[in-house]
Amino acid sequence: MAGAGPSSPGRPLLLVAAVALIDVDGRVLLARRPEGKPMAGLWEFPGGKVETGERPEDALIRELAEELGIQVHDSCLAPLTFASHGYEAFHLLMPLYVCRRWNGEVRALEGQELAWVRPLRLGDYPMPPADIPLIPMLRDLL
Ligand SMILES: Nc1nc2c([nH]c(=O)n2[C@@H]2O[C@H](COP(=O)(O)OP(=O)(O)OP(=O)(O)O)[C@@H](O)[C@H]2O)c(=O)[nH]1
């Protein structure tokens, strides 16, 4: 997949699960990475690292409850595509799910800035390099 970068044997593989939450108007939720973290200020899909022994779906369910205060059922997470991108310190493998149904109201529980973005405006939001190839696929779906 584009963005995979040159192979680097010493670099660990990092598995991160991410989701495009889609509201009734077809807008996508993006969250802004807070100051102090790597790639601060960039907009990304909600999600996070998959822990050892954890299923990606369970990692997402956990992260969505922690970060956004919503409850998501396994059956509402549909796989869409994935990112495979070589960062300097690790190689990121990131399945991207789509979710249109959840319980509760989306809130920024970790002080992060949130934006509901129309597919055609996704390009206005600077994203991590791994995410760039995912945008056309999301637009095609929506
Ligand atoms: N959640 C998420 N992470 C992404 C996206 N794109 C992308 O490159 N990443 C990278 O995947 C990793 C996600 O890990 P994370 O969110 O759990 O970790 P973090 O850097 O916030 O660190 P921490 O949770 O250890 O404080 C980060 O390196 C992040 O930059 C994305 O769209 N969503």
From TrEMBL:
GO biological process, one term: DNA repair
Enzyme kind, highest EC tier: hydrolase
PROSITE patterns hit by this protein: NUDIX, NUDIX_BOX
GO molecular function terms attached to this record: 8-oxo-7,8-dihydrodeoxyguanosine triphosphate pyrophosphatase activity; 8-oxo-7,8-dihydroguanosine triphosphate pyrophosphatase activity; 8-oxo-dGDP phosphatase activity; 8-oxo-GDP phosphatase activity; metal ion binding
Domain (Nudix hydrolase) ranges: 12-140
Keywords: DNA damage, DNA repair, DNA replication, Hydrolase, Magnesium, Metal-binding, Mutator protein
Cofactor: Mg(2+)
InterPro entries tied to this protein: MutT-like, MutY_C, Nudix_hydrolase, NUDIX_hydrolase-like_dom_sf, NUDIX_hydrolase_CS, NUDIX_hydrolase_dom
PANTHER family: 8-OXO-DGTP DIPHOSPHATASE (PTHR47707), NUDIX HYDROLASE FAMILY PROTEIN (PTHR47707:SF1)
Descriptive protein name: 8-oxo-dGTP diphosphatase
Organism, as annotated: Microbaculum marinum
Upper taxonomic lineage: Bacteria, Pseudomonadati, Pseudomonadota, Alphaproteobacteria, Hyphomicrobiales
